[in-house]
Amino acid sequence: MNSALIPNLDLRQETGALPLRLENNSNTPAVPGRHTHSLVILDNRELDRQCLAQCMAAQKADLQILAFGSIEEWKQKRDEYPPLSAILLNVGGKKIDEPTVSEQIRKLSSEFASTPLIVLADSDDFGQIVRALEYGAKGFIPASVSVSVCMELIALSVAGGIFVPASALFAMRHLLDSSNSTARPLSGIFTDRQVEVVEALRRGKANKIIAYELNLRESTVKVHVRNIMKKVKATNRTEVVFKLNDLFLSGSSAASSLC
């Protein structure tokens, strides 16, 4: 079975589910012309996409839910369906930065620029979410949400919004807090350029690499390193890194002792 058109069932109707008829290995609603727009679910796992589509169809009466293994399959029958409102790409447990996944997101978001592409994934990893948005997705929905919530989030994307899980916001806040706590021990001790060199030293980067990344001469980097060594009272690079790490861990009390 290459594709499936899933009926949108309105559970509030007294008559219950709409009758189905089997046509070309697809489930097609017996009542045509009921929907004005459609949602396409893309998932190469047939059972997964069929199950998801059936569940979503029971939640939303104004969208025709279509399930396909690829966008090419949908294109072959696109004239049979209402205008496309959104694309839901279910990547399951795959990583966003896998070449096949990232390329698919880029291609779909580029080809369907006016149609929101939403990624559905098993993970809510912050890095994966950021990459999905960078590649062109207009939303990222973790598989941990309910079907009803998933439909509401899709509606948000159709309306022009961009959704990311709350976990991503917490991760962002943690990164910002870490960044602020990192900057505080350095303030008042080093210049802005020295702070950049300090960060590079803590990562074990050589002078040539530091010079390249900061667009400096290697001789200039050496001058900064010598000045940093004087400020932290170190005699070599290893001791510099040790004292800098100690400075970051102990915070302002260690910073004041160096001044």
Gross morphology: elongated
Give average pLDDT, whole number. Answer: 77
- List SSEs in N-to-C order: EEEEHEHEHEHEHHHHHHH
Tell me about the largest β-sheet: 6 strands, mixed
Strand content: 15-25%
**Count of beta strands:** 8
| Main sheet strand line-up | 1-5-4-6-7-8
* Class from helix and strand fractions: alpha/beta
Quote the distance from N terminus to C terminus.
73 Å
The whole-angstrom Rg is 27 Å
The helicity comes to: 40-55%
User: What is the count of DSSP helices, taking H or I runs of 4+ residues?
Assistant: 11
Oligomer: single chain
Low-confidence stretches: 6-32, 252-257
Characterise the protein shown here:
- By secondary structure, the chain is α/β, with parallel strands linked by helices.
- The protein is built from eleven helices and eight strands.
- It has helices at 46-57, 71-77, 99-111, 126-134, 147-158, 166-186, 192-202, 207-214, 218-232, 237-250, 252-258; strands at 3-6, 20-23, 26-29, 37-42, 63-68, 84-92, 117-121, 139-142.
- Strand 7, helix 4 and strand 8 (139-142) form a beta-alpha-beta unit.
- Helix 9 (218-232) crosses helix 10 and helix 10 (237-250) crosses helix 11.
- The model is unreliable at 6-32 and 252-257 (pLDDT under 50).
